[in-house]
Structure formats: C-alpha cells, structure tokens
Design a protein that fits this description.
Elongation Factor Tu (Ef-tu), domain 3; globular; 202 residues; 7-stranded antiparallel sheet; mainly beta; 6-stranded antiparallel barrel; 3 helices; 11% helix
C-alpha cells in the first residue's frame, strides 16, 4: 500500500527485454533522493503509479521486471525518463494522501494542463467504465500522485474530471511534464471500489 505522496522523482535509465518480445522488460531506475538503505529485493516500490517489486538493489539504483501485460496497461514504463517514486507505507507512516494500492485501473488522456492564476488546471478524460468512481472532492491517483477531484462531467465515451494543482505539487513530481495528449496512469479511490462492489452484490 502507498499514500500517493511522491517521495522522490527518479529516472528510468534503461529498459532491457526479458527474453523474447512477449516476456516483458527489466527497468533499471535511479532512485534520486528516495533513499534505498532500507529497501531489499522483494520490497514494493510505486513507479509512476504502478506497484512494482524490486528484484535488485545496488547503491542508488534498483531494478524491476515489468510484464508485457503491465506494459500494455500503463504509460511511462516502457522508455527512459523521469518517474514518480514512493516506497510502500508502514504502520508508522503519515497518510498524507489517501490509500493507494498501486494497481492502475485505466489510462487517461490529458486534455488541458495550464497555469491559472497561482495554480495549475489539469483536465483528464478517463474511460467511461470508470465514471462511477469519480466524485466531486473525491480522491484519484494520477501517475502515482494523490489528487482531489474538483469537477466531474460525463460524456458518451468518457468521463472528464478537473484537478487544481498547487505549484509545489507540479514542481516536485513528473506532472510538470504533462501536456495535452499525454497518457496518464489512473487509480480510482480504494473506498469507492469497495462501495461499488457492496452495492452491486446486494
């Protein structure tokens, strides 16, 4: 489990195939300021919103194996570049964001990302199948960042939601690289997921 509060921005340094094209890839990630002294192989690390298992840890770098299926369901894990990082929470961790599992529920597409006054407006179109999970003032995880939904509108083929970002969030995460057309990893709120299941199973 994670909180959606990004601990550091790292960088995928290499992407190497694991055997044939259907086998997935191994990512070598420079952890930046994350700190790996307390991380061992087998530990979970959230990379750009996706929970991954460290298979090696050496100095300031760690490696993870990503299946071909995971690559097909996520964005930003198939090439070198900056990534949001967060270590798994402990029972002594402050829950500054919300409960995040690191399981990507779908890919969204950025429609707008622009400065508005002292903040930034981020507008994302998500798959229509996720529409029931978005609510005004509800939580959503975008590329591993816990954010609050400020507006929701339903369209025939999508649900569109807006978020206001403070400059600090933009500065210390990879969200600063977003632009119209960017694909983003989305995770719906864990509580909303269980409420929907309980209501539908009755």
């Amino acid at each position: 489990m994670f909180t959606g509060i990004v601990s550091a921005v790292g960088r995928i340094e290499s992407v190497k195939p694991l055997g044939d094209a259907a086998a997935g890839v191994r990512l070598t990630v420079h952890a930046g300021s994350l700190g790996l002294a307390d991380v061992v192989p087998g530990d979970s690390i959230c990379i750009q919103g996706a929970c991954m298992t460290a298979v090696t840890v050496e100095g300031e770098r760690f490696a993870v194996d990503v299946s071909r299926e995971s690559l097909s369901l996520t964005a930003g894990l198939d090439q070198p570049g900056e990534v949001n990082l967060e270590k798994a929470l402990t029972l002594a961790t402050r829950l500054g964001g919300h409960l995040v599992s690191g399981h990507v529920d779908g890919l969204g597409t950025v429609r707008r990302f622009e400065a508005v006054g002292e903040s930034w407006l981020l507008e994302i179109a998500a798959p229509r199948a996720l529409a029931r999970y978005f609510a005004y003032k509800g939580s959503v995880t975008v590329n591993g960042v816990s954010l609050t939904v400020n507006q929701v509108s339903d369209e025939p083929q999508a649900v569109v939601f807006r978020i206001n970002l403070i400059p600090h969030t933009v500065q210390v995460t990879t969200l600063k690289h977003l632009q119209a057309g960017s694909a983003v990893n989305l995770e719906i709120d864990l509580i909303a997921r269980y409420v929907e299941r309980m209501m539908s199973a009755g």
